[in-house]
Design brief:
With about 425 residues, the protein is an alpha/beta fold. It has helices spanning about 1-20, 20-30, 45-65, 85-95, 110-120, 150-160, 175-190, 215-225, 240-250, 295-310, 320-340, 345-355, and strands spanning about 30-35, 70-75, 100-105, 125, 140, 170-175, 200-205, 230-235, 260, 280-285, 355-360, 365-370, 375, 380-385, 390-395. α3 runs parallel beside α11 (about 320-340), α4 packs parallel to α5 (about 110-120) and α11 crosses α12.
Length: about 425
């Protein structure tokens, strides 16, 4: 009886509020958006700053009037570098928090974990990090690089005269889907260029691995066998710190064995003495050191925000990097698409995303492909400088159109770069 009375009272109160339009008004005040990044665990070194730059971008949009006249309300969750937890947190954001879109994930294993959730619930994910391709979902927009926008150009550079004319290759990565699939593509690419199996060494370490003494010893031995050797690193997360420290400890200089990294940027080098690493390489679609007015404004905006919010590390030494730029572009493009669609409805926003453009800090007009949910992006190769920044030593003539289904994987023959309708 008591419970029934309580329920009736609650209903009466709700009806009264509804009569004044309070519940409806409150519900309509904001548009909720999800931020799904690891703020603890092995990937926090890379992902925490993406949460912060997303919040900065949301503040920027809100200061200019929001979206469709409503303020964006961020809902931040921490999946803690725990891959199954990513799926649970995605469900929470969609079902409980009722977010209109989610910005998040770094590793491909986290993206693979949440993918069925977004597809089943017909919700939107914006994924801001380079990846292995071999995927194309109606419910995901990939604002990082596909392999032909990072991995292939980087290896072509290493094989060129300017890149040192490498003839032997070490494929070194963290043991999960992104490094293994990327290296499958690179093996096929190297084979097509006449590199024999005996000149390719492949090694993997688990997430959070910290002892690279033995592996770097093996690389030194492999590189001493007469041919110019280069290392292609797909190590992810905080393992990069001990890897680069051991590289310095064993005196493996860029002039002897250059390392090109696909998941190391300005942020990951923050905790490393970069003086012994001068000349080692990274391949991205953006570097902080790129000079143009749009990037100068982006860096200033981030620096001011980091100081105002007292963000650890960044209040004293603010850094920007490629996935931060990709996050920033993605949120702005989503805003533009919602305004074009005049709705946050998933299918309407997907249609409005085709062909969206945005002036990117990297000095180009970012364009969302009309069909394949990937950005057209330029490729830059940068050398590590003593201060932890990168000097761009090579770049494409302009933006490169993404090819999610690599031509170097035989099974992809005939696959279309258009998401399947389910």
């Amino acid at each position: 009886m008591m419970q029934r009375r309580f329920t009736l009272k609650a209903l009466t109160a709700a009806t009264a509020l509804g009569a004044f339009g309070l519940t409806t008004a409150h519900a309509a005040e904001t548009i909720k958006v999800g931020i799904l990044h690891s703020l603890s665990g092995t990937m926090a070194i890379s992902e925490t700053v993406l949460k912060d730059v997303a919040l900065m971008t949301i503040d920027e949009i809100n200061a200019k009037g929001g979206v469709l006249g409503k303020k964006l309300e961020p809902v931040v969750v921490d999946p803690a570098s725990n891959w199954p937890l990513f799926a649970e947190k995605a469900k929470q954001l969609i079902d409980q928090d009722k977010v209109a879109v989610v910005f998040g994930c770094w590793t491909s294993v986290s993206r693979k974990s949440v993918l069925p959730v977004f597809e089943e619930k017909n919700s939107l994910l914006f994924y801001p990090v380079q990846y292995e391709g071999e995927e194309l979902s109606k419910n995901v927009f990939y604002t990082g690089a596909a392999p032909n926008q990072q991995a292939i150009p980087a290896v072509e550079y290493l094989m060129s005269k300017d890149g040192g004319s490498a003839k032997r290759f070490v494929l070194l990565g963290t043991d999960y889907v992104y490094p293994r699939t990327t290296n499958k593509i690179l093996r096929a690419f190297l084979k097509s260029k006449g590199i024999p199996e005996s000149d390719i060494m492949e090694e993997y370490t688990p997430f959070g691995h910290s002892d690279y003494q033995t592996i770097i010893g093996k690389i030194k031995k492999f590189s001493s066998e007469g041919k110019k050797t280069a290392v292609i690193s797909t190590i992810n997360g905080d393992s990069n710190v001990p890897f680069y420290k051991e590289l310095g400890n064993q005196g493996l200089k860029a002039t002897d064995v250059p390392v090109v990294a696909f998941s190391v940027g300005e942020e990951e080098l923050r905790g490393v003495d970069t003086k012994p690493l001068v000349g080692h390489l990274a391949a991205w679609n953006y570097f902080m050191s790129i000079k143009n007015p749009t990037n100068a404004a982006f860096i200033k905006q981030w620096s001011d925000y980091a100081k105002a919010k007292n963000i650890a590390g960044h209040k004293d030494k603010p850094l920007t990097n490629d996935p931060m730029e990709a996050t920033y572009i993605g949120i702005h493009m989503w805003k533009q698409a919602v305004e074009k669609a005049k709705s946050t409805d998933t299918d309407k926003v997907i249609a409005a995303m085709a062909g969206q453009t945005f002036p990117a800090p990297g000095g180009f007009t970012a364009t969302m492909d009309k069909e394949n949910h990937h950005l057209h992006k330029p490729v830059f190769i940068g050398e590590v400088k003593a201060d932890g920044q990168f000097n761009v030593v090579w770049k494409t003539k302009g933006p490169v159109v993404a090819d999610p289904w690599s031509d170097y994987i035989a099974e992809n023959k005939g696959k279309k770069n258009v998401p399947e309708k389910k």
